[in-house]
Design brief:
Structural class: mainly alpha
Helix content: 55-70%
Shape: globular
Radius of gyration: 22 Å
Number of helices: 20
Strand content: under 5%
């Protein structure tokens, strides 16, 4: 059973803003209402939504959508929302407009599963601190500006910050240095401070400065330790999810070990695997039965720890598919517990299996599946270079005698959807076609059923998967 979540806390900020003034309350309220009334959390039943099964990596609901499909919001709306608010450090309301432009699309860009996740306290924890913490404010401005300058399709991918973003980046760095040199512990260990450092880590990772990115994550690990460990960080679940996603993304790209849950001097146990049975039991027996999520059903004598990770990710996939079909939402805690428990354990298994073994290729396949399910870096133009190379090499060693053809098909399809690119088509497509034929699959419907019997999230992979299948068998 997962550990009980500590009571929720507000941001601890260095500036006491007291009771928000009417303009701020109106500002927060407008953001609180974004995304309301769009679904219920489990275990309540809800009416089935139409068209969810068609969502895919190239559909409007996916982070890789064309920029023209992003919401168009009149700037006049922003002016009315912030004109009466006094922001710290002399920041003008017009400078905050870019944050508000990014706010409505941030979840969809940064979370592939956004439409199935209930993000609680989003406005209170991520909007209200804009008026209370200068470092947090400047971080949000330069990150939002960086997105529009470099990530939106059609814009330059230059690692250099634009003239609009650079002053806020430099100001963030200076304010944080001053805070750690002269501030008190309340300011140093506050959640806005952690959020600002996380922004610097993400930017360093996106611009190829892996050393700085890891140093920032190490600083966040120290803050977590001084606050009381992982349990204390869960007071702001969304921020902790983002911190771990940055840590995991850096590790998958570089091949190094993650920072969190890897400190020999201050050991912290891995997050426990979540108990998803109450959510799975909402489904009809025909769609869920215990052996369906067992790796032993597909692989002879798998490693026990690997089988646990497989089950956790397989069950989570089934829950997400059900949530997408029924219009329900899962909590951020379900996301955190599944991602944290499975991915950190899978990374910790590195070196534990023989190269070319079935356990090792499945471990890498699970990491590829988890990376595209939980992490955002590919959608922002980043990559998982080490993971991609390792999975490519492992698949090259696979023989028919080692793995059943359906498992090979799953591995190749997952790799194509998550870490491989067009340069891999030369070996990927022949391998996929051979194993599809060995499975006697004759249609996408049969292919889809086979993938779903292992592990598959339709809203993320169906459209791209069908396109790849059709192009190979036609």
């Amino acid at each position: 059973m997962p550990a009980t979540k500590p009571p929720g806390l507000h941001f601890v900020v260095s500036t006491d803003i007291g009771k928000p003034d009417p303009n701020l309350r109106k500002f927060i309220r407008s953001h609180v209402m974004q995304g309301k009334n769009r679904g219920k959390t489990h275990p309540h039943r809800a009416r089935k939504r139409k068209g969810v099964q068609d969502a895919s990596p190239n559909s409007p609901s996916h982070p890789e959508s064309d920029a023209s499909l992003l919401p168009v919001i009149a700037l006049s709306q922003f002016g009315s929302a912030v004109s009466g608010i006094s922001f710290p450090d002399g920041v003008e309301p017009r400078e905050v407009e870019v944050v508000l432009r990014f706010s409505p699309i941030a979840k969809r860009v940064l979370f592939a599963l956004e439409s199935c996740i209930l993000f609680e306290r989003r406005a209170e924890d991520w909007v209200a601190p804009l008026v209370a913490d200068a470092a947090f404010l400047h971080t949000m401005i330069f990150m939002a500006q960086y997105y529009f300058d470099t990530v939106v399709p059609g814009h330059s991918r230059s690692p250099q910050l634009s003239q609009k973003a650079l002053p806020h980046f430099l100001r963030t760095v200076k304010l944080l240095r001053d805070r750690f040199d002269h501030g008190d512990d309340q300011a140093r260990l506050s959640f806005p401070t952690a959020a600002a450092i996380m922004g610097l880590a993400g930017h360093a990772h996106m611009t190829g400065d892996s050393k700085s990115a890891r140093n920032h994550i190490s600083g966040l690990s120290k803050i977590a330790r001084l606050k009381g460990g992982v349990a204390a960080m869960r007071c702001n679940t969304k921020l902790f999810v983002d911190i771990l996603r940055a840590d995991l993304g850096i590790a998958l790209h570089s091949g190094g070990k993650p920072v969190f849950f890897n400190d020999a001097q201050f050991p912290e146990p891995f997050l426990p695997y979540p108990d998803l049975a109450p959510l799975l039991n909402l489904q009809t027996p025909a769609r869920w039965y215990p052996t369906r999520h067992s790796l032993a059903s597909h692989l002879a004598s798998p490693d026990a720890s690997l089988a646990q990770a497989w089950r956790a990710l397989s069950e989570f996939s089934a829950v997400i598919n059900f949530a997408a079909d029924s219009g329900q939402l899962i909590t951020t805690d379900h996301l955190l517990d599944t991602m944290g428990s499975a991915m950190y354990r899978l990374l910790d298994m590195q070196g534990g299996f023989a190269a070319g073994s079935s356990d090792e290729v499945v471990r890498l396949g699970l990491l590829a599946f988890a990376s595209s399910t939980f992490l955002q870096w590919k959608y922002l133009g980043g990559s998982y270079a080490h993971l991609s190379a390792a999975l490519r090499e492992a698949l090259a060693r696979v023989t028919v005698l080692q793995l059943p053809p359906k498992v090979v098909v799953w591995l190749v399809m997952v790799g194509a959807a998550s870490v491989f690119g067009e340069a891999d088509d030369g070996w990927l497509r022949p391998m996929l076609l051979l194993n599809i034929r060995l499975c006697d699959v004759c249609s996408w419907s049969e292919m889809r059923d086979m993938l779903d019997s292992l592990m598959w999230i339709g809203m993320l992979y169906d459209k791209a998967g069908k396109r790849l299948y059709d192009s190979i068998v036609s």
